[in-house]
Specification:
By secondary structure, the chain is of the alpha/beta class. 33% of the residues lie in helices and 24% in strands. It has a 7-stranded mixed sheet, sandwiched between helices. A hairpin with a 6-residue loop joins strand 3 and strand 4.
Length: 695
Amino acid sequence: MTEMLPSYVLGEWWAPPADASERATEVRDASTGDPVALVSTEGLDLGAALEHARTVGQASLGVLTFHQRAVLLKQMALALTERKGELYELSSRTGATKQDSWVDIDGGIGVLFTYSGKGRREMPNAKVYVDGAVEQLSKDGSFLGRHIYTRLPGVAVQINAFNFPVWGSLEKFAPAFLAGVPTVVKPATPTGYLAEHMVRILVESGLLPDGSLQLVSGGVPTLFDELRLGDLVAFTGSASTAERLRAHDAVQTGGVRFTSETDSINASVLGTDAVPGTPEFDAYVKQLVVEMTTKAGQKCTAIRRAIVPEASVDAVIDAVRARIAERVVLGDPRAEGVTMGPLASLEQRDEVLRQLERLEAGGGELVIGSAAPPMVARGDGTDGPAQGGAFVAPMLLRFADASSPALHEVEAFGPVSSIVGYRSLDEAASLVARGGGSLVTSVATHDPEVAVALASGIAAYNGRVLFLDRDDARSSTGHGSPLPNLVHGGPGRAGGGEELGGIRAVLHHMQRTAVQGSPEMLTALTGVWHAGASARPYAESGEPHPFRKSLAELRIGDQVVSAPRTVTLEDIETFANFTGDTFYAHMDEEAAAANPFFPGRVAHGYLLVSWAAGLFVDPEPGPVLANSGLENLRFVTPVSPGDEIRVELTAKQISPRETDEYGEVRWDAVLRNQRDELVASYDVLTLVAKERQPA
């Protein structure tokens, strides 16, 4: 008997009542048609699940800093890696080959690793993210403004498509989790059993904070009625469904954030220089075939329109036909040698064939492949007709009329692409734009002028543009591969949303707020010391030099105020001769005086920074382990021979590292002259031991 696929809500696994099986949706193996699971949410209290996330999930994530959440993401990635063989075995039932499964499963795990690393490198070990520089709102510095990000108080509802049940879930979950917002994930029914097993592994790992991740297996017809201000929805699917959801009152007037990633008629342009025989032509053909056949073309980023110079259309068709014949083996992914599996379901197969008919009716001529049921490699090792499987052969249509609406508006979400010729780069750009907004367009060219001309015409219509040539063909991740470092999304028809993009996706789950107040108040709100806030010069307080304090002892506002040091002409000349920096402003009085920025010969800026280190440093070993850099260095007032400089060094931000015995301290460094004028300012970064080590 086929079993019900459970949901994970309210901290436990839940299944509908036994009699719900009569009304449940049956999910079948994409290759054989054998039953896999029954799916239903009959009797599920969705409102309670959302409230569990807003209360229990918010509380458990709220006690953690960005770094602590980032460490958990890495541990989750390791837990999934350890058991990914189970996911691969299930993935084959969705029609995915091993390569397809690698993109979905290892790609999803890779997103967790990436966000773990970026969270620890690019975010503070805190609960508030500070955006941008300080805004001075008063002349005396007593009233300041800053922008901060704090996490949304609700739940991130993630509605995913059937084509990437693991990656699609994790690429949304990772940034939400890092932001501190709990997730309710709703996978697409045809492949939801693979997402369910991924969630099961995470639950069994014990790494999930209470309420941070819930899974709903099946329909959610009342979902939007349960949402409120502070919640957000990330939707992947059809444009028609996205528009219907976007029109709901919860989004229109209720303040619920809604982003979508939808249909996309992506293009790939062959540059005018990429003629047959060039590496760019070969890379273009290879990429086109990969995009037609990976996941059986069921990718939101797949190439739907091949836009090539008119003189190269026949050559591209011939090369694509030859490569498919040589490289593509259609069949059950469990059969030896298969490189392309079936579509996810019979319903999806029928939909692809319906859209194929629309493309043909709109002027497309089928030049590669056939809509007839293909011969396939079966799981038992034999070849023959696909009995019960959702198989479709790779197909390429040629459009003689580049202005055909069908070419730019109809998407057959399978191994189907169209090819059309162009006569000029301007026409190529206009054809790309006719897609109405795309997730990605790729350009194969080795000519920078071609690349610049096309980029200026197509960038605004795309979320991502890939330039492919002989230099990056081997290292390129390809047209259809969204990366967690870069934005995934696109304007117009593509949905208008943005996912991934590094920390940008994390901030999408947070609210940016302008805060105004005194330096003291902003220091408390942000965890970053602001000039004018309380400081504790160690010489006055009687405390040890700040460099003698471990991370556990150091406090924001601990400060070194140095004695002055006089700059002499001999110092300037010695530094110039020692370093080789004999720039005229330091060595030629007449030339320096003629410069509008200098009164005459002046000290090197780097001499002053070097002296500043000598003025504030404490030379004995530990707890300060290393200087890891300088940031935001600005030279403001020139220093002439006879001037004095002094330095104020203040502990500005303290960031312990969760997995190391040290952390980073950011120091505010300010150099002033004898007239109290600002000479230079910058941040000093040091690595400091968490605890004082015995001598």
